[in-house]
Design goal:
Pfam families: PH. By secondary structure, the chain is of the alpha+beta class. The chain contains 29 helices and 30 strands. Helix content is 43%, strand content 19%.
Amino acid sequence: MRFNAAQLALLARGQPGSFDREGKLRVYRIPASNSNKPQEITERWCRLKGNLLFLMKKQIQKSEPAEVVVLERCHIVESRNAALSIKFESGEPDLYLEAFTKSDCKSWIAALREANSEGLQKRIHHLRQLIMEIKGSEPADSLGGEAQQAGAAMIPKPPRLEFSLECRELAATTRERKPNAVVQISVINTQQQSLTVFSSTEIVEGTRDPLFLTGVTFPPEYPICDGTRFKLTVYDVKDKSPEIRSFLGCTTFSVGDLVKSKDQQLTLSLRTSDGTNAVGSIVVSQLKMGEIEDGEVDQIATDAQGQKCTFICESASHGTTNDDKDNSHLMNAVFKNPVCKVYRFQTVDSKWMFIREQMAECTLSFNIPKQLMTLYIQEDMRRIQELKELGDLSPHWDNLRKDVINHCRQIISSYQETLTEINKLTGSSFKPSISKAEKYLEFIPINLHTQRMRVNCPRKTDAAYDVITVGAPAAHFQGFKNGGLHRLLSRFEAEKKNTAYQCIYYSPENTSKAKEVLTSISLLQPLISSLGDQLLHSAQQHSSDSLKEALKTLSDKTEQFVHVLKDELVKNALLALYTARPGYVSKMNSAVCNHVDESNPTPKEDSTSTPPPLKRQDSIPHHSEYDEEEVWVNVAMSLNCIIAMVDRLLEHENNNQEAGADPSLADVITSHTNGDWHEQLYPLVVTLKDCVNEVVHRARKSMAFVLLQEAACSIPQGLFLKQRRDVVFSQALAAVACGFVMRLYTGLDDKGFLQQLHTVGLIAQFESLLSTYSDEVGMLEDMEVGISDLRRVTFRIAEAKSDEPSDLQPIVTGRRDYYTVEVPLPREVFEGLPNEIKEGKPLHVYPVLFNIGINQQQTLAERFGDISLQERINQENFQILNEYYRILSEKVPLECLPRFQTQTDLKELLEILHQNIQIKKRKNVEILWLAGTICRRMNGIRFTSCKSAKDRTSMSVTLEQCALLRDEHELSKDYFIRALDCMRSRYTQGGLSEWEDPEAASVADNKSTSRHFYPIALLLVSSHLLVVWLILSLVFLLAKYQ
């Protein structure tokens, strides 16, 4: 260790008040080799300044220093009595210090523990927390500039540091060959004397002056300061493999060097490992975003042919766009673990644009499924309770009820076990594809991430483009041997309809309507009771206007209640329950099995024929001794009595007012009114409430019986399908909730978007890249049903209780056929929303799915298989998209929609999309591009999916991003391929040895079934070889599934 003895001596002889701590101590050491023989104990005057402990020669204050101890990489340990020891990690002998009092010893221990750099960092952290508690915000950082008031929708705080790299005059290994350069960026840990590989640039081939388009960015939470040092190592990659590369040179610099340099730019010499030979230079330029002035841009020198550029742009901490403004509490609550990448690309006019990709995990990946599973459990437990409350049933129906209850309990037990296991998980907020077939994670979407591309282009408004990437919502754990949900449900309904069951068949529409009836009467019953109390209160106040208003509201809700009960389904259900009682004996010969269908809902009678025991009838027989009309007629009669009484009271009130001038006439009229209004209305209101309660009681039983019949017909296949549908819907809802929240946060300041949101709703466009071959057919069938189920989901915006992350999490309520997702916002944000949204108006999302298979399995499907599923999905979802556009164009002005450089009319784009769907073109990816463009034009939410949201998804997203840069931001055509390669490069994350995706270790396992497809291009040359190949592939698949 080098030091200046004279300077240290001068520092030790400083003024008494300039030291952190000083005083007299007994000093001695115990050598590690002979710990039983300590050195001689000497009293010395000790002085502490920073991380330096001076031991003076004598015990007086004014003496010369005998020794200095650097308090780094050591531990302060309290010993017995008033002693302490300093233990060094290097293995040096421990230093023992004894004070004269215990209080003096504790003071020295506290001072010594805070003297090293670790103690200093703790103090800085403590002071930052104090500032946050006082100001309520993060203190400004020396690297970040001004405190950011509102961050990007993806990441609330700007990166701590960003810089770009370019090399000049690199030494060539041979004369004939120019290097393929790549730079590896490492962080130097000075305390541990180690290197941590942080990232790498892309490879720039065949030049001695490479300009790297991929920059380096450090996230806000990364622990760097002015003294943090980086090592830049340049390699020559002879082949795109980490093993075949050669070292060219390296250099180091600190954050302070870059920040304090002129124009925040460093030119460093690259040297060989021994430091003797220079092999070129490297230019490090701090990247900043948002403050490039037009004059500065014009002065930027570029040379596309020579790859030379001086690039300077301003940081996101200084300049923000409207799309990026948001509340940091919102971001911290929903988006976690952001990953950021930065690029610089050249435009057609030789200017430079700055691009930042931000990818983050979403807490809703686990939050939404956990809430859904809780709701599933609660709903099934209520179902069991309703079945128990049906009362006595005939032995046949009682046995069916027991079977249904047992199956419901099995589902509840399975869901509770899954929920318990999920609650134990900690760490990442997403499920990797390697875990897609794990039972306890089947409700969790695969690889759900949010990705935003921010573009800062000279002389143009900044823009942001968002996309959600997620694996196809599908039941991977249950498998696809028998197909997916669409095929299974169709087959199940056909079998259930055509097979004789010991129950009454109800169509899916009827069972769904039964659940709606249960929900409606559950909501209307307490409302009618409350309105009745309000009517009595108005009568007690003797207020005519208030009485009229209360009566009108009560009448409307009661009529709505009666209308719900007048449904033909309720009549049939009440009769079916009546006939299922133990004491019922039919007066007519009827079939054991009955059938209720939408096509013939009215009861029939057939007293002449005697059918076979298992022959089903078209409907329930109607029996004259049971009159279903009585279930609601009493409610209507009670309401009519209340209306008549209110009319009479108001008539008397009007007569009293008209006769006010004639006291004798007024006395006569008043004498005919018996008591006050409250006394006369009270018994009528009580009767109405009793009738409503009785009707609700009977209706609940009848609807529960409908659901019992539906469940009894479904055992066990129907309950298995219900579990599968629950799994798929959970994944789909988590994805769409993530997209909705992301889109909402981005558009909080956009009045046009908010108007569209509450007037029409949002389009949610799912782009699927699944093939229509093998297992992916089942995945696509699952995905189709899961996305169509999202049409029964609505969103609401509510005011959050506080700004705590737990209070900003979306909340799911409802039942299987109808869910509401409530999104809380902080009070200051909520107050700025339109009144319609603040009043809790339901906000709708219109999900559409477009699928185009793009892999080699799709080639097989198109040549030898069936792609009708893909064609049907695209055609049906185009109709939904077209209808949404029709409603949008009627209710929302075009000014509310975003503007793009390419001004093709939306109607024209829809026509082109329709034409592409109609034509028979293989792998027509134009459908996906047009659908995505239309979605962005209509302020929609974009999703991209494949089996695992990895390879195909990343290729699609990067291609879309580069196309947007080309079409909307004038990306130079010479840079299009380079930009695409940069975004797809696996060099840029981690070290050179990390070529693959973080999940690439599982790729081989996940794709083992497709390895026998690789030689297809070669085999197509010969028809004989192709036949042999098909036979071998068939044998392989049969062996696999057996």
